[in-house]
EAL domain-containing protein (Tardiphaga alba), 287 residues
Amino acid sequence: RAKSRSRGSISVFEPEMDRQLRDRRVLHQDLSTAIRNGELSLHYQPQARASENVLDADVTGFEALARWIHPTRGFVSPGDFIPLAEESGLIVEMGEWILRQACREAASWPVPLQIAVNLSPAQFMHGDLVNLVHSILIETGLAPGRLELEITEGVLIEDFDRGVALLRRLKALGVRISMDDFGSGYSSLTYLQSFPFDKIKIDRAFVINLGLNPQSAAIVRAVIGLGHGLDVSIVAEGVETHEQLCFLASEGCDGVQGYFIGRPAPIAQYAALVGRVSSVATARKVG
Ligand code: C2E
Ligand code: MG
Ligand code: MG
Ligand code: MG
């Protein structure tokens, strides 16, 4: 009762804000049943060794990206529903589903490529992440070295010591740890000194501006140099053009990911890469 009365006070807000809040609340409720209703799925985006001409054989793995198809709204961007899931704590349950799904999928591939899964800061703060990862690896039979966990600096900002301790325990399981969106937030070199990341992913904001502004090229070049010095693999995100790819390859960037290499898509679209005969190919052969 008290709650619903205080909700009534929302009417003092601007109507637009009121609508947005109500909208969020509804979306929130819908998200809580999304997993159960099978509305959540994963798309996979290839990562490849950087070279001027990326071939199938250069693909080293995939990043799993969550997708929510809402029954009436249709596609809801993870940029919208992941923060919502984090606020409500739903991310813990959702993150578990995503991790299990991605590991199970990758474990079924005839070609043992890498699988990268995003972890949100809330997943670090709640539940026993280390035990969860460990039991999912056992349950799915995925070799630990094939799993890459992507974290953003947010994880380390909230509680540095706890974050670093958790990362060390995760790494002890044999999984790899990637720093995602490097340079986008409050990325600090302290993080790189305090934790041995296996991979740094340069935020797409820098890649977009390659060729447009010399600062971006200088930053990308410096991060690649940093990676080489620290013996950390550097992957550029958001590679959309051949020019960007050529620049990155010539600067010695290790890996690339982006629409130019391949869009996030259901794994069926990448059946050949993971060593499965696609149903289309089978149909052609049979027919
Ligand atoms: P991210 O981890 O940095 O993922 C890369 C994002 O860039 C993806 O957006 C991908 O679709 C997009 N992208 C890839 N290549 C290109 C490109 O060439 N050009 C452009 N313009 N965009 C490109 P998406 O799928 O919308 O995901 C957005 C963010 O949501 C992710 O950023 C990640 O932070 C979060 N997210 C997605 N799936 C999950 C998940 O399963 N768990 C968690 N915790 N977060 C997730
Ligand atoms: Mg990521
Ligand atoms: Mg990223
Ligand atoms: Mg990004």
